[in-house]
């Protein structure tokens, strides 16, 4: 079956994701994470790419990166190939290390850039590795590099990234507050994580919907019983299809999952 051609970003900005094959924890050890940082830096010297955000988790990695698509593909091929050789040698493994080719998502607007920027930095929080207000403490994320306000740590961030930081945020606190905001964007990721994003957005929309209807004075309260009305349910499902660009069937399936989780809290 032929591969689907990649979409080309008009801004040359992409959200890139790579993942271990079969969800393997290929970056689980500290040396493996450091090796990936080393490779990302090493191949920047021969490929004109600009990194604006990154986060290395135990079984996948996110990059917010600018480059022409051809250069990006060349860069990622070198990085993943280098890491595969390292991983197989260190673990005495053979075969594939990554789940297919890297995923890429076009970043076409400034608002989507900043939402993706935040999403990447908050990955360790969503995984339960650190508290929400401590996200810059995660060592293998550009959040830590930004907070140091210096390009002298990993040297991964492009010089434009630090200039961008100063133009967007006037203080450390504004940078921290920005990362606590929520939005309804769904970002490219593993299938499980995409569903988790969708469920979080539905929960957020449900709380707002019920509050606007005057049916729930405290939006954090379990909301499952509130949608027993068929007309309310139809209205909310229509809202989901419009806001999250879901099919009616998918919206209904995800809403049931939200209701089930609310009912067991």
UniProtKB/TrEMBL annotation:
<dbReference type="GO" id="GO:0003677">
    <property type="term" value="F:DNA binding"/>
</dbReference>
<feature type="domain" description="Transposase IS200-like">
    <location>
        <begin position="10"/>
        <end position="123"/>
    </location>
</feature>
<dbReference type="GO" id="GO:0004803">
    <property type="term" value="F:transposase activity"/>
</dbReference>
<dbReference type="InterPro" id="IPR036515">
    <property type="entry name" value="Transposase_17_sf"/>
</dbReference>
<dbReference type="GO" id="GO:0006313">
    <property type="term" value="P:DNA transposition"/>
</dbReference>
<dbReference type="Pfam" id="PF01797">
    <property type="entry name" value="Y1_Tnp"/>
</dbReference>
<dbReference type="InterPro" id="IPR002686">
    <property type="entry name" value="Transposase_17"/>
</dbReference>
<protein>
    <submittedName>
        <fullName>REP element-mobilizing transposase RayT</fullName>
    </submittedName>
</protein>
């Amino acid at each position: 079956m032929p591969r689907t051609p990649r979409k080309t970003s008009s801004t040359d900005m992409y959200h890139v994701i790579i993942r271990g094959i079969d969800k393997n924890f290929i970056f689980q050890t500290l040396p493996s994470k450091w090796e990936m940082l080393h490779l990302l830096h090493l191949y920047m010297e021969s490929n004109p790419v600009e990194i604006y955000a990154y986060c290395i988790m135990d079984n996948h990695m996110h990059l917010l990166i600018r480059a022409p698509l051809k250069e990006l593909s060349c860069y990622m091929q070198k990085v993943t190939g280098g890491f595969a050789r390292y991983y197989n040698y260190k673990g005495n493994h053979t075969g594939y290390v990554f789940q297919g080719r890297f995923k890429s998502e076009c970043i076409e607007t400034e608002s989507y850039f900043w939402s993706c920027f935040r999403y990447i930095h908050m990955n360790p929080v969503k995984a339960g590795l650190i508290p929400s207000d401590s996200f810059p403490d995660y060592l293998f994320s550009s959040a830590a590099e930004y907070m140091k306000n210096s390009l002298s740590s990993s040297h991964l961030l492009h010089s434009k990234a630090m200039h961008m930081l100063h133009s967007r945020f006037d203080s450390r606190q504004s940078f921290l507050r920005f990362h606590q905001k929520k939005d309804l964007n769904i970002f490219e990721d593993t299938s499980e994580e995409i569903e988790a994003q969708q469920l979080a957005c539905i929960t957020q929309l449900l709380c707002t919907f019920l509050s606007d209807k005057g049916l729930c004075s405290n939006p954090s309260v379990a909301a499952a019983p509130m949608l027993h009305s068929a007309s309310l349910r139809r209205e909310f499902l229509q809202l989901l299809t419009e806001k999250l660009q879901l099919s009616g069937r998918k919206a209904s399936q995800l809403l049931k999952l939200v209701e089930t989780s609310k009912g067991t809290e």
